[in-house]
Amino acid sequence: xxxxxxxxxxxxxxxxxxxxxxxxxxxxxxxxxxxxxxxxxxxxxxxxxxxxxxxxxxxxxxxxxxxxxxxxxxxxxxxxxxxxxxxxxxxxxxxxxxxxxxxxxxxxxxxxxxxxxxxxxxxxxxxxxxxxxxxxxxxxxxxxxxxxxxxxxxxxxxxxxxxxxxxxxxxxxxxxxxxxxxxxxxxxxxxxxxxxxxxxxxxxxxxxxxxxxxxxxxxxxxxxxxxxxxxxxxxxxxxxxxxxxxxxxxxxxxxxxxxxxxxxxxxxxxxxxxxxxxxxxxxxxxxxxxxxxxxxxxxxxxxxxxxxxxxxxxxxxx
Amino acid sequence: xxxxxxxxxxxxxxxxxxxxxxxxxxxxxxxxxxxxxxxxxxxxxxxxxxxxxxxxxxxxxxxxxxxxxxxxxxxxxxxxxxxxxxxxxxxxxxxxxxxxxxxxxxxxxxxxxxxxxxxxxxxxxxxxxxxxxxxxxxxxxxxxxxxxxxxxxxxxxxxxxxxxxxxxxxxxxxxxxxxxxxxxxxxxxxxxxxxxxxxxxxxxxxxxxxxxxxxxxxxxxxxxxxxxxxxxxxxxxxxxxxxxxxxxxxxxxxxxxxxxxxxxxxxxxxxxxxxxxxxxxxxxxxxxxxxxxxxxxxxxxxxxxxxxxxxxxxxxxxxxxxxxxxxxxxxxxxxxxxxxxxxxxxxxxxxxxxxxxxxxxxxxxxxxxxxxxxxxxxxxxxxxxxxxxxxxxxxxxxxx
Lengths: 318, 400
Known about the structure:
Helix content of chain B: 40-55%
Number of strands of chain B: 15
CATH topology of the largest domain in chain B: Rossmann fold
Low-confidence stretches of chain B: 1-5, 18-46
Largest sheet of chain B: 7 strands, mixed
Radius of gyration of chain A: 20 Å
Largest interface: A-B, 44 and 43 residues
Structural class of chain B: alpha/beta
Distance between the termini of chain A: 13 Å
CATH architecture of the largest domain in chain B: 3-Layer(aba) Sandwich
CATH class of the largest domain in chain B: Alpha Beta
Radius of gyration of chain B: 26 Å
CATH superfamily of the largest domain in chain B: Response regulator
Mean pLDDT of chain A: 88
Number of domains of chain A: 1
Distance between the termini of chain B: 88 Å
Strand order of the largest sheet of chain B: 7-6-8-9-10-14-15
Strand content of chain B: 15-25%
Oligomer: heterodimer
Strand content of chain A: under 5%
Helix content of chain A: over 70%
Shape of chain A: globular
């Protein structure tokens, strides 16, 4: 997107965005604000996984594990070391992200030689391992969880993090690194014969994805003010995977769109459950996924982006 | 063209920085306006003829049975009160939101109840993890929250707007210790606890402290992890220590398996535990091996108290099942909340909080309830014995 826009257009969009944000932040109800923050966190998670699974084509089922590392590391620092100041919060988020990224690097180095199903199993096992270790760590509360985390995450912080991560991924996709990712997804052997160091680029992709998951986890912990290991079970990993599959594997705007939809959908369906006393939420949610997979197996946007469609073509330089 | 571009850039820069200033100014104004809007919404409620009370419960997900029993019982208590004419001439209305047994969903649900539905108070949750996720939101909005069955002491420590109806682990452990020492007259006890479970660790610690203080002896302490399938190694160690009683504070799924394997190994002494044993599933899993076990619980549907009996009868007539302990706690939470609303000066959160804090000697199904200064109840516990696959009420033990 960046390259398509003239500089002042970009400034203008940023300005409009800030007006909207400041308006939203001050005028909407706390309930809607909370949902927007959650969808922001989900956007970062989905795009992080999209980088690994959608763009580089490595199926990972352990995203919740990286999220847990980020959440616990930052929450531990906030509760026991620094306290709730904004500047400390920024450092704690980054620390959470970096630790998650580091674990992604450590895990990625030996395991990314594996392909497909095998890699999926290893990542799944890794995230379960993280969960069980946290369950047995008394210093962070074990099974009781870690309460009284300062409530620092607000809409501005989340929007900032979402914006930066989207730009980060977009820039990466448009650079030679992103091209290498795509080449690996399309055909590893061909990519290798073109001189791409497969392991190196896989590890870069994996580490970046894990870093973003750590950032999202840190924001999540400071939003809920309480975390326990059961939140980061494999179901969470699947929820994130569903987002990117629904949005279209490899599509930045698709993952973003799906993350927003899937955060708001259960809340939008809540009145239905209250009226009927039956849990229609999950029924509709799952049937929606089935219908989706039958009619549009490549996801909402497929591999394309929002601005590839004609209606949004106005942003493009013609 | 070149000049135009720079002008445009400067203009947008100015524009952006203006917005920053604008947004900073806005934040302060908004806080005031939200306070005034809150006040006006409360005035609206007072002129209305209904009082809205919220509940966040696990109606779906792995712990759905907990939420459904609690919801049924709260509704029953409100319905009974409404038949008598409601509170201060107004009808009570319960809005229950589902949290899919997840802490993060609970936080969303309680925010919706407080800020969208404008409830005056919130009931719930059952599990401590979900209550802990909800408590800071209730506290910061100054809306009282009454947790029905969370036993972790941490829950009510999160703020002075947070109360609970169930007794806490430091009370439940000693209750069985006293029963074993004084009523069963046993002096040598082995403890078998779940190391992964905070509830189990807490109970065994408080049981041990009380039992040793009374003059008993803990002769063996073994541990397992929830989800284990084979317990024979630890049970053999317990057998060789020759205890008179084994304290096993776990959840019914593991307890059933452990009891089976203990009987297979020839351990004949009685076992005992806490309210985690309270489930019909215990007999399905453990079968005959559960016979003769004792456990502490919040209430027994067999207690002779006419108040308990009328509750059991009405609940059964309405929902077709015998109310479990969580239903009893839900019912009592409803009663406590009704009483507080009756005594409250207005429907403002702080007034209801003050009325709740003064709760004293309210007759409930789970005992006579008084809140202490930590907003925890002081009340009695019952001891239940398993006989012929059924729960038999043994005795009631008062706090000391």
